[in-house]
Design goal:
The protein contains 23 helices and two strands. By secondary structure, the chain is mainly α. The chain has a two-stranded antiparallel sheet.
């Protein structure tokens, strides 16, 4: 197996899936191009803001990609390249893309409401409260893991304590900070300039090139702990600012960088045609880890991710101009993420055993960036420049996910304490305080900061398990919605059942391992938080799943009424 063959398989499968299966789903569920979308119906200038398809696609893709499709496949490659390849393709098409499309579709058809509201409408209020608490805890995990990933890529000094600066990291940090400033300016242009979309695109590209050029020439050398504070301050601002002022333009800018990175990586694979130095299959039990469920929770975002349903229903659905845009924005963005996961697999497979470590590439983003830089040097491009740009792209993935997930976490916390039908002025002081966006944001980020100090390497397994369990709950909610609205939803049942088995097993194993350590050697504060989170997530997940499955398996209301009438005369 070589890189070109693996890439060709992925392009054929993912491209064919969009043209055939994606269009089949759109036709089966029904797309109304004349319907007034929530972005127009409830436009408020903060969350409900109509945007062009390319802008919303940029937001969706930049938000869902994160560090997952890069970190996950590289870690899971210990089982061999074949199971990783198969799960990315099968999971990406029949699990992930279907979930993302269903979540966005259900949200748009329900006034842009979140999965939590959909659960309330079609499953019950208790289910909604439990789901929102689950989402809030999950978002804390995501913010903690991705914030630590970003801080690591921004860290300007070597970890050996010598004070040696790392230029690539400094350039990435500087460029990212410039991006944030440019995003605010671009937001003003998009909001008030009312220019043609091609002019906006040209402006965005000029800003992108300028930021990269300045970052390469004026790197920022700041240590990791300081970056933790800076990143959380930025996330706080991004979490409460109107989406047009920072979220939309930043994701719009980054989407070009991310697409360029993927295109460059694909070109690199075709020109370098790297050989696969991994075994096709290593075994079901490797380094103390069992392929089931570890493979599936580790690959996570590259195949299926519950977090995507929060973005699809929490932010992107509120920006859709026309229902026909839902397919490319949700289904299409997920397939592009699966392509990124395939590239990550080719990247790690290109290194011989021990070769990456010998080159000083110790983290997953570094391995990915180093491999792509090796590929593109065949075209004569400078290795250091490409390595820096790829590192920048990876940090952009994680940073844009932070923007979105922190906002979703804040909204989930506010919804958890909100009282439907009660005017804001008549709510108790406690409820008003807990639904205040500043209080909700601070509580979310403080807990995330404490977990971030543990390090993403320790958090990742728990994040993966919780992420996949969230996909189970989203699939259940969408299945109930489709059933109650008399639409075909059987294509969600197998993914739902399989992911339920994966996640309950993975969380059970995590609780057993951490619990064993707790009663023998004791746990640190971070690991104690992980144990508490794991128990809460599993408990909440089971409760919501049971309620959802009860609704999914019960007879339609008209059948129950007919049975009751028949019983009266029997």
């Amino acid at each position: 197996m070589n890189g070109i063959f693996m890439m060709a398989i992925a392009i054929a499968v993912l491209g064919g899936a969009y043209l055939i299966y994606g269009r089949y789903l759109a036709k089966k569920w029904g797309i109304d191009t004349e319907a007034k979308t929530p972005a127009y119906e409830l436009e408020d200038g903060v969350d409900y803001v109509p945007a062009d398809t390319n802008v919303v696609f940029g937001h969706q893709f930049a938000s869902i990609a994160g560090a997952g499709p890069i970190n996950g496949p590289i870690q899971a490659a210990m089982f061999g390249w074949l199971p990783v390849l198969l799960w990315i393709l099968i999971g990406g098409v029949f699990f992930g893309a279907v979930q993302d499309f269903a979540a966005m579709y259900a949200s748009v058809k329900n006034k842009g409401r979140t999965i939590g509201y959909i659960i309330e409408e079609y499953i019950g209020k208790l289910g909604k409260k439990l789901f929102l608490l689950f989402c809030w805890l999950f978002c804390i995990l995501v913010v903690a893991a991705f914030a630590d990933v970003v801080a690591g890529t921004f860290n300007g000094f070597a970890l050996d304590g010598t004070g040696t600066t790392i230029k690539a990291n400094g350039s990435v940090a500087a460029t990212s900070m410039i991006f944030i400033i440019e995003a605010v300016v671009l937001g003003m242009i998009l909001k008030f300039g009312r220019l043609h979309k091609w002019i906006n695109t040209a402006i965005a590209l000029i800003m992108l090139v300028a930021a990269v050029a300045l970052g390469l020439n004026f790197p920022l050398y700041i240590e990791r702990n300081v970056w933790h504070i800076v990143i959380f301050f930025y996330v706080f601002v991004a979490c409460i600012a109107p989406v047009w002022a920072l979220l939309q333009p930043r994701d719009y800018l980054n989407s070009y960088l991310l697409v360029f990175m993927i295109v460059g990586a694909v070109v690199g694979v075709f020109v370098a045609n790297p050989q696969c130095n991994l075994d096709a299959f290593v075994g079901f039990h490797v380094n103390g880890q069992y392929m089931f469920p570890i493979l599936f929770v580790t690959i996570a975002c590259g195949a299926v991710s519950g977090f995507h349903s929060l973005v699809s229903s929490g932010t992107a659905s509120k920006q859709i101009k026309n229902e026909k845009s839902m397919l490319p924005i949700s289904f299409g963005a997920m397939l592009m993420e699966s392509m990124l996961a395939i590239i990550a697999l080719i990247a790690v497979a290109s290194f011989a055993n021990g070769e990456a470590a010998a080159q000083g590439l110790t983290t997953q983003p570094q391995i990915f960036a180093g491999a792509i830089a090796n590929f593109l040097t065949v075209l004569g491009l400078p290795h250091e420049l490409v390595f820096t740009l790829i590192n920048l792209s990876v940090s952009a993935f994680a940073l844009t996910s932070l923007d979105s997930v922190a906002r979703v976490g804040r909204l989930s916390f506010q919804e958890l304490f909100s009282e439907d039908g009660v005017e804001e002025t008549k709510r108790s002081f406690f409820v008003q305080m807990m639904t205040n966006k500043y209080v909700a944001t601070i509580l979310t980020l403080v807990l995330a900061y404490l977990l971030a100090k543990v390090g993403y390497g320790e958090i990742w397994p728990l994040f993966g398990s919780a992420n996949q369990l969230l996909s189970v709950l989203a699939l259940i909610a969408c299945s109930v919605f489709l059933k109650r609205t008399k639409r075909q939803g059987a294509m969600l049942w197998i993914p739902m059942a399989f992911m339920m088995a994966v996640t309950f097993t993975a969380l059970g194993m995590t609780i057993f391992q951490l619990g064993k350590e707790f009663f023998t050697t004791g746990l640190s504060l971070g690991n104690t938080l992980q144990l508490v989170f794991a128990i809460l997530l599993l408990t909440l997940g089971v409760l919501v799943a049971v309620q959802g499955i009860q609704k999914l398996t019960e007879k339609p209301e008209e059948e129950r009424e007919a049975g009751a009438v028949g019983g009266q005369y029997s």
